[in-house]
Design a protein that fits this description.
single chain, about 120 residues, alpha+beta, four-stranded antiparallel beta sheet, extended
Length: about 120
């Protein structure tokens, strides 16, 4: 049995030095998910050659609606400058959402590796 996940659909969005890849794949259990890959062409001054830096996000079916709302809110804020109502999320078992106190946004910011 082959372990590789087969792409069911793929679309490339060229954007200057970046390319965005939207790929639909299927788990062994038959659940479909999306991978979003950002690929950037970067010049390495040490070797004198270009290489591709890739960042990948896996988006599963149960999160589609929340992700779509969050993205729409971010784009709306950029366009209008008005902060939209936050996406309401039930407790997900990892301390995000619900009324357990603390700041999910602050916790998430600690988990993200920001590279520039």
């Amino acid at each position: 049995m082959e372990n590789r996940k087969e792409e069911l659909y793929s679309q490339v969005i060229p954007a200057g030095k970046r390319r965005y890849f939207f790929d639909v794949k299927e788990t062994r259990g038959g659940d479909k998910f999306v991978t979003i890959t950002e690929s950037r062409k970067i010049f390495d001054n040490n070797t004198g050659e270009f290489y591709y830096d890739k960042n990948k996000l896996f988006l599963y079916k149960e999160d589609f609606e929340k992700f779509q709302k969050g993205l729409a809110n971010a784009l709306s804020f950029i366009e209008t400058g008005i902060e939209p109502e936050p996406v309401v999320v039930e407790n997900d078992g990892y301390g995000f959402g619900g009324d357990e106190g603390g700041s999910a946004k602050a916790d998430l910011m600690n988990d993200i590796d920001f590279k520039y």
